[in-house]
Design a protein that fits this description.
This protein is mainly beta. The chain is 7% helix and 30% strand.
């Protein structure tokens, strides 16, 4: 099906069959695995061939990206703490 193209590290996707969102955290070309992390922090792996068969849509980063962090209140962090803002933007 390949509805979103190849996986991109750092991008968020939603599985249309389950309604679950996840972020791609690594793409291992040697093993053919796409490593993903769900909003709650659970890590999983998808075979690249299976990736092409999934019904996915690209989605925005959740507004509360602290979901995978224990004991962190969303009000205790700022946008400067966001992992998507780390890249040396000066």
């Amino acid at each position: 099906m390949d509805s979103v193209g190849p996986p991109q590290i750092g991008d968020w996707y939603r599985r249309l069959d389950k309604g679950e969102s996840f972020q791609v955290v690594n793409v291992d070309d040697a093993s053919g695995n796409v490593e993903i992390q769900s909003f709650d922090g659970e890590l999983d792996s998808i075979d690249k061939e299976d990736w092409d068969e999934l019904e996915l849509e690209a989605t925005a980063e959740p507004p509360d990206w602290t979901g995978s962090m224990e004991d962190v209140e969303p009000d205790d962090v700022t946008e400067d703490d966001s992992p998507s803002d780390r890249g040396g933007n000066a």
